[in-house]
Automatic annotation (TrEMBL):
Record-stated family: Belongs to the trans-sulfuration enzymes family. MetZ subfamily.
Keyword Methyltransferase among record annotations: no
Name of protein: O-succinylhomoserine sulfhydrylase
Cofactor(s) required for function per UniProt: pyridoxal 5'-phosphate
Leading EC class: transferase
EC number: 2.5.1.-
PROSITE patterns (alphabetical): CYS_MET_METAB_PP
Pathways involved: Amino-acid biosynthesis; L-methionine biosynthesis via de novo pathway; L-homocysteine from O-succinyl-L-homoserine: step 1/1
Catalytic activity: O-succinyl-L-homoserine + hydrogen sulfide = L-homocysteine + succinate
InterPro entries: Cys/Met-Metab_PyrdxlP-dep_enz, Cys_met_metab_PP, O-succ-hSer_sulfhydrylase, PyrdxlP-dep_Trfase, PyrdxlP-dep_Trfase_major, PyrdxlP-dep_Trfase_small
């Protein structure tokens, strides 16, 4: 097998993991098949008995899915990758694979909403409890660890306020206490940040976002060592069933080929929009790691290649003013989804963060005037004009 570490990011993104069939197809083939046939009864027995490697059934392995897994593993610099049906399936399978009843998680408090629900209401039914901490306070991570803590979990930069966690420092805290660190790398993608190289043990993706990048399919992935991902997490997928479909894997493979190109343009547009917003009279405060005014600008410069595509800002005049800006747009899509070629705009206080109480929202800094934009690939002048109408 090729050692992809020798090659640059874009070469890996375009070529890693492809195994051509005897037809000699140039583009990757899709294998939409639930099962695979054996040459004879002895081969069937050998495959089922795990004496011979090879495909049996697409819930276990599928060639198109494996192609995607090998390509993403090569981009994240991990030994193994397991593709899943969605980002939440990736997080759920990781927790089921490495935790048992009585274990404890320490997680950053500003996580994706469904991740918080999964930890608080689903895992807690099985006596796996979670303590949430402020992701930028290293002392809080340290203080929250208990004798039964097994997993530290974070997302950086956070959504929507773009707070940044020091992955290397948190990995050291985790390892000193025999815990694993999992990083949800959805917002940066390996084009901007590779958590495994900073000491994290597990990387999680919602492929639904930037890996597809064009808003077409649901999918997810877990990347890490052969032992954790290839054994513990694979056994959950094999028997629990949240595997990725071959068609979706093919879409994501094609998405990976242009990932770096797209991320560079997302970042160009987001940086330009953030700098422009900072000068607007109606804007009270702006959250973007690429601005020197961001409190963790130095850490981000060290940890990420560039600053990402999520820009949030608070507008003077609260909810009424925020809704006016959103409703005055003609190009941007009013949707909570992100990581698309199409720019999306959302009001977190009344959508993604509506299930928490107003006090919790204020404590988390999600004010009524806050607007979050996932900056897409349209022309920057058109995006500025779209916002200017409401500002
Ligand atoms: C969307 C998202 C998820 C969940 O992914 P799905 O593919 O929607 O299941 C997890 N983490 C982050 C940061 C996300 O943005």
């Amino acid at each position: 097998m090729t050692d992809w570490n020798e090659f640059g990011f874009n070469t890996r993104a375009v070529r890693a993991g492809q195994v051509r069939s005897d037809e000699g197809e140039h583009s990757e083939a899709i294998f939409p098949t639930s099962s695979f046939v054996f040459k004879n009864a002895a081969q069937a027995a050998a495959r089922f008995g795990q004496k011979e490697p090879g495909n049996i059934y697409s819930r276990f392995t599928n060639p198109t899915v494996r192609n995607f897994e090998e390509r993403l593993a090569a981009l994240e610099g991990g030994e193994r990758c397991m593709a899943t049906a969605s980002g939440m399936a990736a997080i759920f399978s990781t927790c089921l694979g490495i935790l048992k009843a009585g274990d404890h998680i320490v997680a950053s408090q500003s996580l994706f909403g469904s991740t918080i629900t999964l930890f608080n209401t689903i895992l807690s039914k099985f006596n796996i409890k979670t303590t949430f901490v402020n992701l930028s306070e290293l002392d809080s991570w340290q203080a929250a660890i208990q004798p039964n803590t097994k997993l530290l979990f974070l997302e950086t930069p956070s959504n929507p306020l773009t707070e940044v966690a020091d992955i290397q420092a948190i990995a050291e805290i985790a390892h000193a206490q025999n815990c694993l660190l999992a990083v949800d790398n959805c917002f940066c993608t390996p084009a901007l940040q590779t958590p495994l190289s900073l000491g994290a043990d597990i990387v999680i993706h919602s492929a639904t976002k930037f890996l597809d990048g064009q808003g077409r399919c649901m999918g997810g992935a877990v990347i890490g060592s052969e032992k954790i991902v290839g054994k513990d997490i694979f056994s959950i997928l094999r028997s629990g069933g949240p595997t990725m479909s071959p068609f979706n894997a093919w879409i994501f493979l094609k998405g990976l080929e242009t990932l770096d190109l797209r991320m560079q343009k997302h970042c160009d547009n987001a940086e330009a929009l953030a700098q422009w917003l900072e000068k607007q009279e109606a804007v009270e405060r702006i959250y973007y790691p690429g601005l020197p005014s961001h409190p963790q600008h130095q850490l981000v410069k060290k940890q990420q290649k560039r600053f990402g595509s999520i820009v949030s800002f608070e507008i003077k005049g609260g909810k009424e003013a925020a809704w006016r800006v959103i409703d005055s747009t003609k190009i941007m899509s009013i949707t909570a989804n992100l990581g698309d070629t199409k720019t999306t705009i959302t009001h977190p206080a009344s959508t993604t963060h509506t299930r928490i109480t107003p006090e919790q929202r204020r404590a988390a800094g999600i004010n009524e005037g806050l607007i979050r934009i996932s900056v897409g690939l349209e022309d920057i002048q058109d995006l500025q004009a779209d916002l200017l109408r409401g500002l």
